[in-house]
Amino acid sequence: MLTTDLSGRIALVTGAAQGLGEAMAHALADAGATVAVADLQDERGAQVASALGADHGFFHLDVTDDSSWETAVSAVTERFGGLDVVVNNAGLEITDLIVDLDAAKALKMVEVNVIGTALGVKHAFRAMRPGGAAGKGGAVVNIASVAANIAFPSIALYSASKSAIDRLTRVAAMESGKLGYGVRVNCVYPGLVGNEMGIGLANDVTGLGLFPSVEEAVGAVIGLTPSGRLAEQEDIADAVVFLASDRAKFINGAGLPVDGGMGM
């Protein structure tokens, strides 16, 4: 019987020093995986890895830097003896009305969200494909957003970047299949989570005058969500574990909404 047991598997999670990435790292470890916590934040990342236990580790990674990816993946495969799962979670959310768009900030967000994810897929493929440092195939899980499926004011470029992750995921799955890499590629669309990033968005849209208060901004999101609440970090982390596991062995090139129905 297929299970979500990830014992014996090596999983690298980007942006794992806090928020959703930290929750994903814990969920993967709880499912039995050995977790490589990857982030720019060395101190916080090391603390997360330490909390997971001695069998796990922290690896410095700038997701926008090709050589940083190469170094990190090489270090992970050397230390743990392989690589089976890559979760491309690292991302930025910058709130701006289109009329006030800051090109420099927008470019940085696209660089992290889109190029960072694309480089993650690139180096996952190189490590996991036949002849790679790991060479046994595996699973890539990209983190998109409900923002890819809705029209919410002030997040146009963020929404565009997350829509790009959806397209990237589907093309990557096709390339992996056609080239015989043996790597499944899927993505998750998280709903709004009441963590630092989510509440930051609520503060931003209130500051822009789109809502009279943070509470009303959050209430508007809940009002659009059939499940009647914000997402919890564990909701998203559980979906990542599922897509990384053998229970999802014939799910490929798909986007899984974990948004309480908000993006339907």
TrEMBL record:
Molecular functions per Gene Ontology: oxidoreductase activity
Keyword annotations: Oxidoreductase
Keyword Oxidoreductase in record: yes
Keyword Chloroplast applies: no
Family in the record: Belongs to the short-chain dehydrogenases/reductases (SDR) family.
Name of the protein described by the UniProt record: SDR family oxidoreductase
Native organism: Nakamurella sp. A5-74
Lineage, broadest ranks: Bacteria, Bacillati, Actinomycetota, Actinomycetes, Nakamurellales
